# Entry
Amino acid sequence: MTEQERQDAQALLRVLRNRLTEWDRTIRGFNVGMNCGEPAGQTVMHAHIHLIPRRQGDAANPRGVCVG
# Structure
């Protein structure tokens, strides 16, 4: 993604976050994810972003797995 595309995507995420939290007051947070590259699970080679609304207690381990 170009710098402008990244900025536009970030702005869109803010708009969607605001709309979702206004529409559903049970949303307490979000996971934002992108799969970049085949080893990371990307199957279609284009950019797309997952915005996943989260609610208190909706998953046993909302952090997932961290590697580093």
